[in-house]
Specification:
The chain is an alpha+beta fold and about 120 residues long. About 40% of the residues lie in helices and about 10% in strands. It has helices at about 10-20, 40-50, 60-65, 80-85, 110-119, and strands spanning about 1-5, 25-30, 95-100, 105. Strand 3 (about 95-100) and strand 4 form a beta hairpin.
């Protein structure tokens, strides 16, 4: 199990606390420092069953500068979104937990973290 975190994020800290309380075996990836490649983002999107716009933090300043809210949300624009997430990792929703069964969840709630633990 791996968890992508921003240590400054309260949701990430809460997820780590819950994982520790449950005795989970996991690896921490500080994705702002260890930036995921476009290939890694594609892989995690496949595991999540989501599209890149589903995990994009559109309220971030860089998102506003790029104008991502106006970008098309379709197959033709998918790579543009993925490249933006890799170039600007602050845009990636957090925390993302990859589960043992090959799936992943965005662990913003206790329920989602527990879901990842049960997989």
């Amino acid at each position: 199990m791996e968890i992508w975190i921003n240590p400054a994020c309260s949701k990430c800290r809460g997820a780590l606390t819950l994982l520790d309380a449950e005795g989970a075996d996991y690896t921490v990836r500080r994705y702002l420092e260890d930036v995921p490649s476009p290939e890694e983002i594609r892989a995690v999107l496949d595991r999540l069953g989501l599209e890149p716009w589903d995990i994009t933090r559109t309220g971030e300043d860089v998102a506003k500068e790029l104008g991502v809210k106006e970008w098309p949300r379709d197959e033709a624009a998918r790579e543009k979104w993925i490249e933006a997430l890799s170039a600007h990792p602050k845009l990636i929703q957090r925390p993302i937990i990859t589960a043992e069964d090959g799936t992943a969840v965005v662990g913003r709630t206790e329920e989602a973290v527990r879901d990842a633990l049960s997989r």
